C-alpha cells in the first residue's frame, strides 16, 4: 500500500514488498526506514544486517544499499529531500536549524547497515510519530503540511540523539577510550565555531595538555586534528552544494572559511575537483565512507 508517492518537501511511503527493487536516490539527504512487518537482510556497501519487525534504519543517498526480503515485508520510508530544506518560503522554518540537524546526521552516519535506534524509549517515540504522520498523509491537505514537518523535525532530533549515543565515528578498532567519541561529537557539533576547535580550547574541555591533544587525536583517528576538521567541514560543504541553494559565499562564511576563494581552493585540494565540476557530477566524494558497487 502506497500512502504518498511524492511531495516536494518530503516523500512518505508505506509499501509491502516481496522483492526489493532499486529506488532513486537523487536529490535525497537520506531516508529513515521502519520495518512494520517481515524479515530479511539489509545490505550497505556489501555489509549485511538482519532486519525484523520494528527495525529502524537510515539509508544513505547512495546507490549501494538494498534489502534481501525473506518474507513479505511492509516498509515505511520517510525521505528527507533537498527541497525539504530549500522550499521554506511558505512555512516558518529556520533553514539553518534544519540544515545543521540533517547535515549532522548525514555527515556522522557511518553508512553501515544496522539499527540506528539504541534504546526502546526512542523506538517507541518514533513509532508513535510515524503513526501520526501516516494518519495525516491519508487525509492529506495543506493543513497537514506544517504538522508533518514538525513531526519529522522531532524524528530528526531523536536520530541525532541516537547517533551521539552510538558508535558511528570512524575510530581505530583497537581503541576503547570513550574520550575520542566525545571529542569527535564535540568537534562535529561546533564546526561553525572556529574558536571552539582550537587546540587550547579542546585541551581545556577534555582535560588534556595542549601539547598532547594533537598527538592523542592522531593516534586514535590516524589523521591530524587539522585535517579531520577540514574534511569534516568539507563534508558539510558537499551536502550544501548538492542539496541546497546556499551560495558559495554563504557556505564559506557559515563554516569559517576566509572567503569563497579560500573555500574553493581548499575544496579542490581535498575533493580533487572544482566546486563546479563536483556539482555537475552530482555525487558525494568525501562523504562516502567506502567504495560502493555501481
Explained architecture:
With 294 residues, the protein is α+β, with helices and mostly antiparallel strands. It folds into two domains: 10-165, Sandwich (Jelly Rolls), CATH 2.60.120.280; 178-281, Homeodomain-like (Arc Repressor Mutant, subunit A). It has eleven helices and five strands, in the order E-E-E-E-E-H-H-H-H-H-H-H-H-H-H-H. Strands 1, 2, 3, 4 and 5 form a five-stranded antiparallel beta sheet that branches. Strand 2 (28-44) and strand 3 form a beta hairpin. Helix 3 packs antiparallel against helix 4 (142-165) and helix 6 (199-205) crosses helix 7. Residues 1-7 and 88-93 have low confidence and may be disordered.
Describe the protein's topology.
Layout: E1 10-17, E2 28-44, E3 47-51, E4 56-59, E5 65-81, H1 83-86, H2 95-108, H3 120-138, H4 142-165, H5 178-189, H6 199-205, H7 210-221, H8 225-243, H9 248-254, H10 260-271, H11 275-281
Antiparallel strand pairs: 1-5, 2-3, 2-4, 2-5
Amino acid at each position: 500500500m502506497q500512502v504518498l508517492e511524492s511531495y516536494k518537501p518530503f516523500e512518505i511511503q508505506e509499501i509491502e514488498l516481496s522483492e526489493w527493487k532499486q529506488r532513486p536516490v537523487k536529490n535525497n539527504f537520506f531516508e529513515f526506514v521502519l520495518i512494520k512487518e517481515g524479515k530479511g537482510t539489509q545490505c550497505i556497501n556489501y555489509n549485511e544486517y538482519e532486519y525484523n519487525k520494528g527495525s529502524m534504519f537510515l539509508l544513505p543517498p547512495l546507490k549501494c544499499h538494498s534489502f534481501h526480503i525473506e518474507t513479505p515485508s511492509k516498509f515505511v520510508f520517510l525521505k528527507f529531500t533537498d527541497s525539504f530544506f530549500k522550499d521554506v518560503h511558505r512555512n516558518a522554518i529556520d533553514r539553518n536549524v534544519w540544515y545543521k540537524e540533517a547535515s549532522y546526521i548525514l555527515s556522522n552516519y557511518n553508512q553501515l547497515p544496522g539499527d540506528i535506534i539504541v534504546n526502546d524509549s526512542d523506538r517507541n517515540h518514533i513509532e508513535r510519530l510515524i503513526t501520526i504522520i501516516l494518519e495525516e498523509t491519508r487525509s492529506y491537505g495543506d493543513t497537514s503540511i506544517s504538522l508533518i514537518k514538525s513531526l519529522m523535525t522531532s524524528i530528526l532530533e531523536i536520530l541525532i540523539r541516537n547517533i551521539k549515543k552510538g558508535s558511528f565515528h570512524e575510530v581505530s578498532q583497537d581503541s576503547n577510550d570513550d574520550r575520542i567519541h566525545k571529542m569527535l561529537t564535540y568537534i562535529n557539533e561546533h564546526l561553525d565555531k572556529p574558536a571552539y576547535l582550537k587546540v587550547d580550547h579542546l585541551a581545556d574541555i577534555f582535560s588534556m595538555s595542549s601539547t598532547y591533544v594533537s598527538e592523542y587525536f592522531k593516534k586514535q583517528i590516524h589523521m591530524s586534528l587539522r585535517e579531520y576538521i577540514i574534511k569534516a567541514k568539507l563534508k558539510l560543504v558537499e551536502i550544501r552544494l548538492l542539496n541546497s541553494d546556499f551560495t558559495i559565499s554563504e557556505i564559506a562564511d557559515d563554516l569559517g572559511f576566509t572567503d569563497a576563494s579560500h573555500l574553493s581552493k581548499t575544496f579542490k585540494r581535498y575533493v580533487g575537483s572544482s566546486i563546479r565540476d563536483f556539482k555537475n557530477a552530482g555525487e558525494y566524494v568525501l562523504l562516502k565512507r567506502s567504495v560502493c558497487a555501481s
